[in-house]
Amino acid sequence: MHATPLKKQTSFASMAQTTFLGKWFHRGLYPWRGIDWLLLFFPICITLFSSLLIASTRLYTSETDLAWNHVVMCAFGVAICMWIARSRYESLLDWRWVIYLITNASLVAVMLIGTVGNGAQSWISIGGFNIQPSEFAKIGIIITLAATLKDRESTTLGGLLKALAITAVPWVLIFLQPDLGTSLVFGAIVLGMLYWSNMNPGWLVLLVSPIVAAIIFNLYIPVWIGWVILMAVIAWMTLPLRWYSTLIIVVINSIAGKIGELLWDLLQDYQRDRLTLFLNPEQDPLGGGYHLIQSRIAIGSGQLWGRGLFHGTQTQLSFIPEQHTDFIFSALGEELGFMGALAMVLAFWFICLRLIIIAQNAKDNFGSLLAIGVLSMIVFQVVINIGMTIGLAPITGIPLPWMSYGRSSLLTNFIGIGIVESVANFQQRMKF
Question: Which of 48, 279, 376, 386 is the least buried, fewest Cβ under 10 Å from its Cβ?
Answer without folding.
Answer: 279
